[in-house]
Amino acid sequence: MQFGIFSVGDVTMDPTTGRTPTEYERIKAILTIAQKAEEVGLDVFATGEHHNPPFVPSSPTTMLGYLAARTERLLLSTATTLITTNDPVKIAEDFAMLQHVADGRVDLMMGRGNTGPVYPWFGQDIRQGIPLAIENYALLRKLWDEEVVDWQGRFRTPLQGFTSTPRPLDGVSPFVWHGSIRSPEIAEQAAYYGDGFFANNIFWPRNHFQRLINLYRDRFEHYGHGTREQAFVGLGGQAFMRRNSQDAVREFRPYFDNAPVYGHGPTLEEFTEQTPLTVGSPQEVIEKTLTFRESFGDYQRQLFLMDHAGLPLKTVLEQLDLLGEEVVPVLRKEMERGRPAGTADAPSHANRVSALRPTGAATEGSPA
Length: 368
Hints:
This protein is an alpha/beta fold and 368 residues long.
């Protein structure tokens, strides 16, 4: 399994001090948090993509390119790449370039986003969200899979004899997760291509995501990519920890109550009962995370949201120490125990190259 963190990149006032960080401070904090993730032994850092306040990650590949130079083994990903409003040609080129820069330590998560106004900002119609996602991704795959592309569709100008550059590293495109919180069409799309499905279950009840994941697994098998158990599933969640559960609840409550995602709705207690949000001791985070497998089956990637809602950088880094030193080592051991034979490994550039070329031989000039 892969364990990591993701950031939505919100710039939020700390409700305990009344101070809001500058965009510069928040961007620098996210970069520090990502590097800390590698330091404490996590596998993945993922950033969202937003084009509106109070969020700052408008250019994920810029951020991930910087991190590629500052890390050695951390897998760099997006938590959302807007397949509906980004040009598929630009996505193909940007992420292939990042793949080369990062020696293959790259994948991405496709999504439609949750900000309606972004569509007209980029010349699109929100009422075409699902058709845009389907057509744009089909073109993206074609651009990565074929050297010379002739193409015509509904939503952009045709392509004639077009070659996207650079070509994917070792002839293997970045692995793609399709993220969705509500759309069965996206689960179907992920299954059709044999890609991963990521259920970012941070604020919906578990049974909602069970339906989406079961649909994805069934259709993955239907399309001949493997058994249901060999499908690639990722989950999101959030945790806040202190040694003492009462201290964790007391410290996190003002952040929860004012959070852009959570605040001004159900209580902290209601949320922790109904969703994967865990506020308590490291042992409580371990115990709750281990229940996810009972609901969703064995899966490949677990990401935690750790820096949301105005939490100060010092606190986030303390959380990562607890996550990396006390929580993830136990989760790795327990989730490996009893894992059925034949369950898919977490996707990586190395194992995907090996599957393409059984000898594992890399192309000239690329990492072995």
